[in-house]
Amino acid sequence: MSVWDDLQGQPAVVAQLRQATQGAGLSHAWLFTGPPGSGRSNAAKAFAAALNCDQDDVRLRGCGECAACLTILGETHSDVAFVRTEKVTITIDEARELVSTAGNRPSSARWRIIVVEDADRMAERTTNVLLKAIEEPTPRTIWMLCAPSPADVLVTIRSRCRAVALRLPPAADVAALLVRRDGVDPAVAERAARAAQSHVGIARRLARDPEARERRLETVRFPLALRGVTAAVLMAEKLVKIATEEANSSNDERDAAERAALLATLGAPESGTLPPAMRGQVKQLEDDQKRRAKRSVTDSLDRTLTDLLSFYRDVLIIQLGNAVELVNIELRAELVAFAGHSTAETTLARMDAINKARNRITTSNVAPLLTIEAMAASLI
Questions:
Q1: Which residues of 323-355 are buried (b: 16+ CB within 10 A; e: fewer)?
Q2: Given this model, what pLDDT does residue 250 score?
Q3: The pLDDT value given to residue 274
Q4: In sequence order, what are the beta bridge partners of 60?
Q5: Which among 95, 96, 144, 378 could disulfide-bond with 353, CB atoms 3.0 to 4.6 Å apart, if both were Cys?
Q6: Three-point CA angle 354, 358, 376, nearest 5°
Q7: Residues with pLDDT less than 70, the chain
Q8: Do 31 and 116 meet the contact criterion of CB atoms below 8 Å apart?
Q9: 72-77: which pairs have CB atoms within 8 A and are 24 or more residues apart?
């Protein structure tokens, strides 16, 4: 076992990080980039574990079995902080707290490490709070920032970081990981990896949840019944409903558990009105949960549109001569028939409409339903 085992299909990245753990090119700041599902945060976590591994021999660091490796992989090590947000952005107050933490010397490990998994979710003024800490780090502190691409991070930040570029692993590697790590049936793992287009997290969810696989297939089949404006409006409503239900299903249970845990910690009465001193903390939790719910719906809708995009991607592949494997192999007959009634130029225009809708939903404060309705109308 090794901390690198879950970095499927990333041999160049593993080699680069291994060399750094042995002292070749170790920097005080790193920027991990790659498309969603490529394993940016997993790579940063594995690197953090290897840097603080208990093994004395540098060639063995990253063993995955010592106390340091296990606690870092489990995100419980006192000297390694993992920062992620389930809200729309990382706030400036959270950034200031990070800078304060980074100024402390490690208590037991070689390095104090700060892993910011959503570096692209910081406004410019928030990122500027980190700039001085990254420019002039304390001697035993290492920063690890994760973002989809270098362009998602201010140039003043990325110019001070050593780059680690990940790519989406081959579907076969993702399937092998699901079989080995999660005990998934090989046939289900192969189908899930292909449907997720090598996104490891989504592939795992599809492999373990038959209902998620059915919802995805329903989404992918929508264009087959797209006939006229009425059908487009109905498709838009259904897409938003699917995304919202999927997001809410995971949030409701978590919200209730968080509220119960907070009330228990505060020693709140089991019934009746909360004392005034407790209401503020409960209100803060509820506000955080609302922000998280908004992001969850946005992320879920983006994944739903990505699934829809895979339909037109396959249509384009067929129209261009089947040069690569289809994502939705089980729909090949329907895809071939659909491809015969349009041109590659039309398919590209439809794909562009979907990508524009994704961009508006994830970067602008727009009404999702209206955006999806406009997109659906352009697919007719």
A1: eeebbbeebeebbeebbeeeeeeebeebbebbe
A2: 62
A3: 74
A4: none
A5: 378
A6: 40
A7: 86-88, 249-253, 270-272, 289, 292
A8: no
A9: 72/45, 72/48, 73/3, 73/45, 73/46, 73/49, 75/45, 77/52, 77/109
The secondary structure of residue 122, as a DSSP letter, is B
Centre a 10 Å sphere on the Cβ of residue 235 and count the other Cβ atoms it contains.
Answer: 23
**What pLDDT is attached to residue 87?**
61
Contact 147, 120 (CB under 8 A): yes
Within its chain, how far is the Cα of 128 from the centroid?
24
Q: How far apart are CA 200 and CA 173, in angstroms?
A: 10
Closest CA to 307 of 205, 234, 227: 205
Q: How many helices (DSSP H) and strands (DSSP E) are in the chain?
A: 15, 5
Distance in angstroms (rounded) separating the CA atoms of residues 24 and 38: 24
Query: Sheet holding 80-83: strands in order across?
Result: 80-83, 112-116, 141-147, 29-33, 162-165
Phi, psi of 122, deg, nearest 5? -115, 130
DSSP letter assigned to residue 379:
T
**Tokens 């019934």 map to which residue?**
271
Angle between helices 368-378 and 276-319 (to 10 degrees): 10
